[in-house]
Amino acid sequence: MAARRCLGLWFFLITLCVVSTGADVLHTTPVTGTESSAAGTETVVARELPEAPSDPGEHTAAEPTREGEQNDRTRGGEQTLGQPTREEEQEQEKTREGEQTPAQPTREEEEEEEEQEQTRGEEEFTREEEEEELTREEEELTTEEEELTREEEEQTREEEELTTEEEELTTEEEELTREEEEQTREEEEEQQTTAQQEEQTKRWEATELEEEHVHDAAVPPLAGDPPAADPPSPPPSKDDFQEELVIRPLHSGDIYASFQFRTVWDADFMGDQKVSHYRLFPKSLGQVITKFSVRELHISFTQGYWRTMQWGQPYLPSPPGAELWVWFQDTVTDVDGTWKELTNVLSGIFCASLNFIDSTNTVQPSASFKPLGIGNVTDHSFLRYATLPREIVCTENLTPWKKLLPCGSKAGLSVLLKSEKLFHSTFHSQAVHVRPVCQDPQCRTTSMELRQTLNVVFDLHTSGQGKREWSLFKMFSRTLTEACPLASSSKVYVDVTDNPQGEQFELSPATPLLTQAVVLGDRRTYSVYDLTQQASFGSSRSLNMLLRWKAADGEMLRPLLHSERYVAGYGLQAGEIHTLIYNHHPYRAFPVLLLSAVPWYLRLYIHTLTVSSKGKDNRPSYIHYQPSKDRERPHLLEMLLQLPPNSVTEVTVEFERALLKWTEYTPDPNHGFYVGSSVISALVPSVVAMDTNSTLDRPLFSSFFPCKEEASYFMRVYTEPLLVNLPTPDFSMPYNVICLTCTVVAVGYGSLYNLLTRTFQVDEPSPGLAKRIANVIRRFRGVPLL
Amino acid sequence: MGLLSDPNRRRALIGMLTRMPVDWLVRTMQARGLEVYTQRFSRKLPFPDEDKERYMVKGTNVYGILRAPRAPRTEALVLSAPCSPGNENNQAVGILLGLAQYFRSQIYWAKDIIFLVNEHDLIGMQAWLEGYHHTNTTGMDWSPLQGRGGSIQAALSLELSSDVVTSLDLVLEGLNGQLPNLDLANLFYAFCQKIGVLCTTQGKLPRNDWDTTSGYSHAVQTMMLMVLKQASSRPWGDHGLFLRYHIEAASIKGVNSFRPYKTDATTVGRLLEGMYRKLNNLLERLHQSYFFYLMPSLTRFVSIGYYMPAFGLLALILLLRALDLWVQLSSPPTRTTEDGVEVVPASPGVLSILTPLVISHLTGVALYTLPVLSQELAVEHFPVSETEAVVLTAIAIYTAGLALPHNTHRLLAGEGTEQGWKVLKLVAVLYLAVLLGCTALINFSLGFILALTLVPLAAFITPHVPKTLSAVVMVILSPGLTLLFAVFFFQELQETPVTLQEGWMLYLSVISQGILDHALYGSLLYPLAALLVYPCWLLFWNILFWK
């Protein structure tokens, strides 16, 4: 009910904006889709009536949009008296919008997005509403003075709306600032409506609180915080949302931006209580986790290949295409069936072709994929792993992914996620990871962690026009103006490790905050911008970091581990898969786990498997091989290899290309068939531990023994997928024409003609074929017949 | 002068002066934002190549990969420009670098684009392709490649010798007579039309007057050139080696003739850009059009369905002849002696058939192996260079093979019978039919030319035809002389007629090139001719002199 009212309110505002531009625009406003919520609008208007100087009877009878218009006009009149210049500005703004709106329906995509945004808006508002209830639990909401104190919150909501409207406009920085000015004015308009809102939501608080108490009671002794017994004290925050953006300037001049959104929820999905009240955690995912008894879920969609040699290591690696791996709870009996259902459901949630995952591309790795959350599961029969190397990632996958965020794409870091820029990049990868994590240091209870990540690399030559200069606006064509109001922390990190004195690049606005972290075995320094601090935004009230390179190409430290894979040989009968794994560490060997899942139509000759490094045979210490079954399951090959220092290890295996049945070919058989990326999981000696001789910046006593925690770190590297051509029949038109016509002639006409013209008679046994041919020739030559 | 008089030293010096500027290329490509790699290779030729003045070949290929944004490194296109000694192909390398810079700033690439500058033209290309596909068919030394772009979908090789060109020539004939998909030629033609560049194939402009005699003969000449080139089994441009790997490839050569209207490098660049964008948009490999065709002009083609029956009819003669012989053999004419006893002639022994077969094939093996093996011996005893030694040895062995009949008959115990030559001829005719059939399937032009010369000969040869005349005809139609005529004919068609002396020199160099093509790139013409066609011809020679 509250949601409905809020929705109504929201549309009321839109109507308000649009209607004031004139009755002509009215027909083209987005109100068209809101017929169902007309009642909500009506009620809101009705409640406002006591203040509005118009006849109440008329309002109840007339259609709501007209009322809105009238109402707005009266308001507008008031404002005109007070601030005529601003009104003009608003008019301009709105006419611009009005011009834009009729153009919208021509582009289907945008329309769709808008629709999605509207529906999402509904969700967002419920969530946000609840959030506000919690934080303002003990406050008394009856007096109108309170509203002034809550002006900020209102502002954020207002801004959200503005950003949605903004999407329709071509974005320019000037507009951003102008709209900010408008915000302040529109807040004043909003004061009354918020009063209504608070009243409506008040009822919800009570029920919500009850729910929480019940829930807490289910796990009382384990919870670290005492349950909120008395109403005035705030209840324990059951879920928590954090967002951050890491920006790493790459030596090639490209720039790497990695978004991380983390929602932790103390709910017990597997408990007896059904989890039915969702706040920050997306309900769609929560239900999936509950229904399919998922312990861990990792899904990634990637467009492009991470170039380790140019870019170093990514924060979260992922293979090109789609990757899905899931650990199920050990209560699941039919894992394959559940997996099948789960992939189909996820396919719907993420608008991806995950439903193409079936037994022919699913494997159960025995060692490569261990649970990332807590819980020591060893039985890999509950693990399923599949990749779809052919999956193409685009906006249709981005939109549902953004929907899972508490703030959607309306506030916080996620305003930067605009598809027109994200897909104008060199590399794009988005992922969702769900796993159980410890709730407290003692780890007595677990929480569910949802981590949404999005990695994108912008190219110097295409996106950057060759100028070695990056800014948030240049990357995303947006700037940051606020944190997500639901986020407990919202930060932007810029990697300045290679730039201690600012000799490499110049970063503005400068920030005094610095932090250090050991990332991927290397100690990195980051400049931090805390978006929850108003100071981060400066006087312009928007954060647009500018990063200008001073030096030309810098030398990057060569990544310690990288790999390469290709198909060798020619012809369509046989071939050889080569996997090269490079260890660039100068003196340390380290183990890697190589996993490759090869489709059945490449028949691997496992006896030809050779592993060699530095020209010598390198015996894997562990091999897990599961042969394929035609049309049922793929080959799975897992090996534990020791990579000698400073070496290239080459794994080769020969294969034969199978001839498919003609229905098994894809519609584009001459494109080739994909073989998914191999996965190399490794414990790599860290760079920090590498320089045992370095006393730089460190006291002497700290550096004798190599620091154990940093001695090695876990890393996963994906190889390229392969495109293999199989022997393909000519499916082209002549083939079909010949087949069809020949069949028709032979079967239809031929048999009929045969019956019509044949005369049946008894004949003596005929002479042999050779004799007959000989007779023909003899007749030619005039020799007497045989 | 004394320094340069020694050819080997001169060669080395020239080699040093005109080495490819590897470092500069690497730096330039890196500055254009490509991933640059190099590949070193070395190759010792079986004997010095006098045409191109090379023997010990060492070189470096430089290639830069333009990584397509958001593409998973599964597909690639190749643009190559051979960087030959001297300033011959500088313009092509320049255009390649310019295109690389332009392509780099575009967002629309869906396939990686590999810009390859290969040294020592075909040898470098062979090394690079073998490195890329990790095969080694010819025993070349190359360093493994560090960067790859997945499976190569199409390739173009660019050869320009001047800043401005009057027309662009499309070369399609590749190794062993392989041809790229016809759509590649269509693409080239379409873009030439669009941009307004004159385009040719075999150096001949397409003409519109099909129905006139001159137009018809022009088309026939163009097609004959293609047939001869295809029959030569050698790659006629750097693209020729790609075809082995099922990569559609063609060479584009700039021709600067005396026509007044010139086209500048920008236009060539635009043409290439257009072609690459088209190829970039391909969802599948080029496969919709023909792989087997002959082109009487750039706009027309003769498909396999039209030309194959002609060959089929030729082969049919052999089959009918074989059938006839078989029928004759299966019912031997009984001869009645004076006393009225019917004598059935004894069927010939296996030995009488096997001996000529084995001996002629041994001659073939000698022709295949000895020239290269015995070059040092020949150089020691005769005042010739290595190359001349190889060619002359080959010709000597070829001629010596003609002495075979007498030898065979000395080895045979008895007289050759009537039955004997018929069995031998039956075997030889079937052998030839199979041989030609297989050749025509692989390389139609070669099969057809061989069929034209060998089939009449196979049809009429018996021991009973006039010996001298037949022997002359047979020698004229022998594979070796066919090659000689083909050389003259080719020069005639190219409108560069040669004198007998020049033609003979050309013939010698063609033989040496054929042997080198086999050793370097795996061209099959030399082994086919030496090991199969020549022995087969010897069998007929044997039949002619059957006693």
UniProtKB/TrEMBL annotation, chain A:
Keywords recorded for this protein, A-Z: Signal
InterPro entries referenced in this protein's UniProt entry, alphabetically: PIG-T
Amino acid composition bias (Basic and acidic residues), ranges on this chain: 56-76
Biased composition (Acidic residues): 125-191
One BP annotation, GO: attachment of GPI anchor to protein
Keyword Hydrolase: no
Domain of life: Eukaryota
Region (Disordered): 48-204, 218-240
Pfam families tied to this protein: Gpi16
GO cellular component: GPI-anchor transamidase complex
Extent of Low complexity compositional bias: 218-227
Signal sequence segment: 1-22
PANTHER family the UniProt entry points to: GPI TRANSAMIDASE COMPONENT PIG-T, GPI TRANSAMIDASE COMPONENT PIG-T-RELATED
The protein's name in its UniProt record: Phosphatidylinositol glycan anchor biosynthesis, class T
From TrEMBL, chain B:
Top-rank taxon, per record: Eukaryota
Gene3D superfamilies referenced in this protein's UniProt entry, alphabetically: Zn peptidases (3.40.630.10)
Keywords: Membrane, Transmembrane, Transmembrane helix
GO biological process, one term: GPI anchor biosynthetic process
TM region(s), chain numbering: 304-323, 343-368, 428-461, 468-490, 524-546
Keyword Magnesium annotated: no
Gene Ontology CC: one annotated term: GPI-anchor transamidase complex
Protein name (record): Glycosylphosphatidylinositol anchor attachment 1
Organism from which the protein derives: Gadus morhua (Atlantic cod)
